[in-house]
Write a structure and sequence with these properties.
308 residues, alpha/beta, 4-stranded parallel sheet, 3-stranded antiparallel sheet, 14 helices, 7 strands, 10% strand
Length: 308
């Protein structure tokens, strides 16, 4: 992977180094370690981009990663940009169509029930929490759901905009940090965290990313941290928002799917019923098909690059 990074960034793209966002999670951390190992610490810049709803641990752990590697890093609080774009206001407006009292001090997140709780297709729930800790669950309609998601996507797109600012300023390649679960199943925002010049770990399963992290000496605090989205104001794990299973089991399921194994093999491997295994495979296939457009570039009638 170090050779791949050198060839991609320094040779093919003719850039001086790499810039990437540091979230304090395992994916961005391992990617930063690989970039520093391949290019040298002086050619890597880390960006910490908190906003008012970010988990405080993200900033603390991101700084720890940058300082442990000895790379330059910058802190860019994106709250004012998001506020000016209407990220919070547009989202809250969609939420108030279901919860009229939703206002300052309230928190929220979108969740999916377990894939094993009946037919999970299109049954996202909105969880809201009042300032006194009372929680309510709503079933958003089409308009409300996409209103919340579209507004929340400002966060990923703003962070990517900031990464490309530093890339242009210092002549760097922007490094994406998805693993294969996120990349293949479409768990990213188009022109947001899905945008990058290089994606060095997009072929790796999440458990492999953890193994590489241990080999590279990633701090234990990051290795033990539960993967989160850090998008909504309420704490939210990746599997309750998008994936059908915890990442360790989802790794096995996606690998089985990619290798053409049947539900019988998956059932025995992770200890679920045949019916449940079929549901997992159906969920994987549905996500791949539904998010295929995320990987597509713009359609062009007649491209001079294809002609030449």
């Amino acid at each position: 992977m170090t050779r791949f990074l050198i060839d991609s960034i320094l040779v093919r793209q003719r850039r001086k180094g790499a810039v990437l966002g540091l979230s304090g999670g395992i994916d961005s951390t391992v990617t930063a370690y690989l970039c520093a190992k391949a290019l040298g610490k002086d050619r890597v810049i880390g960006l910490l981009m908190p906003e008012r709803e970010s988990d405080e641990d993200s900033l603390k752990l991101g700084k720890m990663v940058a300082e442990s590697l000895g790379i330059r890093y910058y802190v860019e609080d994106i709250t004012r940009i998001l506020d000016a774009a209407g990220c919070y206001g547009r989202r809250d407006e969609a939420i108030r169509r279901m919860e009229a009292d939703y206002s300052e001090g309230w928190r929220s997140k979108l969740v999916l029930p377990s894939i094993f709780e009946g037919d999970r297709f299109n049954v996202s729930r909105l969880v809201v929490e009042s300032p006194d800790g009372e929680r309510k669950v709503h079933r958003p309609g089409y308009r409300e759901y996409f209103g919340i998601v579209a507004a929340s996507n400002f966060k990923q797109r703003t962070r990517k905009m900031m990464e490309y600012y530093y890339a242009d300023r210092f002549n760097l390649s922007v490094i994406g940090t998805p693993n294969i679960l996120e990349y293949q199943l479409g768990f990213f925002v188009k022109n947001g965290d899905g945008a990058a010049d290089v994606k060095p770990i997009a072929h790796l399963y999440k458990t492999q990313v953890f193994e590489i992290g241990r080999y590279l000496g990633v701090p234990e605090e990051i290795l033990e941290r539960e993967p989160t989205t850090d998008t909504y104001s309420l704490p939210q794990t990746q599997d309750e928002f998008y994936f059908a299973l915890p990442y360790s089991e989802m790794d096995i399921a996606l690998k089985a799917y990619n290798e053409g194994m049947g539900p019988e093999a998956l059932s025995g491997e992770i200890g679920i019923t045949m019916e449940q295994a079929v549901r997992v495979f159906r969920d994987i296939e549905s996500k791949i098909n539904a998010t295929r457009y995320l990987h597509m570039g713009p359609d062009i009638i007649d491209s001079p690059f294809e002609r030449n």
